[in-house]
Amino acid sequence: MASSNKLVLLKSGIQIIGVLFAAFGGFLLNIAPPGGIIKLSVGIAQFIILCILLYIAALSVYSLALDKRQYKKNYKTWLMICGIALVSTVITSVVYFKQYNHLIIKVDRWDAIYVRGILNDKSLAICKEENISGEHSCEMELLNNYYTAEQIEDGYLWSPESIKSSQLTLLICYLAFILSLSVTLFSAIELLSSNLKEKKE
N or C end of the chain: which has fewer CB within 10 A? Predict the structure, then answer.
């Protein structure tokens, strides 16, 4: 009977965490950088993070089921993890959204979003011929009045290497952000769970 209760407790804990992270994952994809490859990488990373955290949860729940004296120690551990993860979440969120605002550009006339790179030589030459000074002014002029959406996607405006570099920067910052955010949410749930179980005891 005791063994059955332990399995029920373990199963319930994993199910609750799984449902929360499934809903949480949709939010993360909504704020992800544009691009199919980036979103695929993000999805894979989220799955790996979820598996790791569920494994930790399983061990945590099972250890508590075996030894109720672990509640207090477990609570302190999750409190420390939650605090560190919360600070990390704040820092990584500031860095990510700063990079997002700098590297992501929306073109209203096409209702499209692009990852910004460095203007290639052809674009700079056009701006020089048109006497457009300043990289930002040059970029906006070419986006709004010169290139088509197809040409932008084909790499007429920014150099392909710089776009890949921008995508990598966004991906690294985003993964650091969602990892910190995931651990914060997860540890907060475990913290609350440990606290409630300790009070019941």
Answer: N
With contact defined as beta carbons under 8 Å apart, do 189 and 20 qualify?
Answer: yes
Pick from 20, 8, 1: nearest CA to 62: 8
Phi, then psi, of 134 in degrees rounded to 5: 90, 130
Three-class DSSP category at 21: helix
- SS3 helix, strand, coil % of the chain, rounded to 5? 80, 5, 15
The ranges assigned to domains in the chain are 2-118+158-200
* Cβ 163 vs Cβ 44: under 8 Å: no
**pLDDT tens readout for residues 31-89:** 777 766 566 666 666 667 667 666 666 666 655 555 555 556 667 777 888 899 899 99
Residues 106-145 have pLDDT tens digits of: 887 788 888 888 888 888 888 888 888 888 888 888 888 8
- Extract the tokens encoding 23: 């809903």
User: 155, 163 in Cβ contact below 8 A?
Assistant: yes
Whole-number Å distance between alpha carbons of 61 and 103:
42
- Integer Cα distance of 74 and 114 in angstroms: 45
